[in-house]
Write a structure and sequence with these properties.
Strand order of the largest sheet: 1-2-3
Number of domains: 1
Shape: globular
CATH superfamily: Complement Module, domain 1
Number of strands: 3
Number of helices: 1
Distance between the termini: 15 Å
CATH architecture: Ribbon
CATH class: Mainly Beta
Order of helices and strands: HEEE
Length: 74
């Protein structure tokens, strides 16, 4: 089982990634997204087609398709 974690990725630098409209983007709960910069999919997948993500006690699967799309399933 592989868990995606940016903490173990030595090449990840969160200050490198920013979004021009970061200050105006809001979450579904009304919070600002400024504390969560966009992550490149490569930093999560790290050369794999599928990674498993544990979130709130549930296991999810993030999968990259042949057409370059991402699918998240529970």
């Amino acid at each position: 089982m592989l868990y995606a974690s940016t903490a173990t990725s030595p090449s990840f630098n969160s200050s490198t990634f920013s979004h021009p409209r970061e200050s105006s983007r809001m979450t579904a709960h009304g919070g600002n997204v400024a504390d969560a910069p966009p992550l490149p999919s490569e930093s999560l997948l790290r050369g794999h087609k599928t990674v498993e993500i544990m979130h709130n006690g549930s296991l999810y699967k993030l999968q990259a398709t042949k057409l370059g799309k991402l699918i998240l399933t529970k």
